[in-house]
Amino acid sequence: MEILQLLVEFFSQYGYIAVFGVLILCGFGLPIPEDITLVSGGIISALGNTNQHIMFLVGMLGVLMGDTFVFSSGRIFGERILSNKFVARIMTPKRYKQVQDKFVKYDKWVIFMARFMPGLRMPVYLSAGISQKVGLLRFIVTDFLAAIISVPIWIYLGYYGAHNFELLLDWVRHGQMAILFIIFLVLSVITLIYFIKKKRNSEIIEE
User: Fold this and answer.
1) Is residue 205 part of a domain?
2) How many domains is the chain built from?
3) Residue 206: is its pLDDT beyond 60?
4) 117 vs 24, 86, 113, 114, CA distance in Å?
């Protein structure tokens, strides 16, 4: 509640540029939840300080640029960046190894799912750059596909729930799980359709 209130007051004073700047810093591990930042952007739009649709575009740009900066830092500096004191606090050797193992197992889907897992975004994106296994364009496209799901949800959630902070915070707390559940259902349906089509095609060929 306190963080949300502080962000709303700060964003109300400085508008789009403040939201954009905080989102960039969130990408680098600023200890402010990115989701709360986006919700706050939606709230100040509901209060008449900004336009909600422009705020959505600002949110998308801030999220993508922040993520891309982190990815590019890992790609440019490689494992040397892990010796940086700030980075070392977030990316411990154990966490780095765990993330690398996930990349080996799940490939680009790790980048996609990290968008919905607070606390893992920065380590995953930095590791993706360090590993050199994911190209810049592929990273941006994958990150965009994830952001186009999460960003509008948080922005418009803040916009439509602006006048009831308690209820809004409750929605935010359960929002991540709801989004993950929806994504799981969608991916399950897509996978099921894929295997059904594959089975039908194989039956046609056999005939």
Assistant:
1) no
2) 1
3) no
4) 17, 21, 7, 5
Strand, coil or helix: what is 43?
helix
Q: Give the domain range for residue 149.
A: 2-174
Complete DSSP assignment for 132-180 = --S-HHHHHHHHHHHHHHHHHHHHHHHHHTTT-HHHHHHHHHHHHHHHH
The burial of 131, by beta-carbon neighbours within 10 Å (0-12 exposed, 13-18 middle, 19 or more buried), is given as: middle
Q: What is the pLDDT of residues 36-48, one digit of tens each?
A: 899 999 999 999 9
Q: Specify if 42 maps to a domain.
A: yes
Q: Is the pTM of this model over 0.70?
A: yes
181 inside domain:
no
In a domain, 48, yes or no: yes
- Residue 200: CB partners within 8 Å, gap ≥ 6? none
What tens digit of pLDDT does each residue of 64-99 get? Answer: 999 999 999 988 988 888 888 778 777 777 777 777
Contact in structure between 32 and 26 (CB atoms under 8 Å): yes
Q: Which residue has the tokens 């095609």?
A: 201
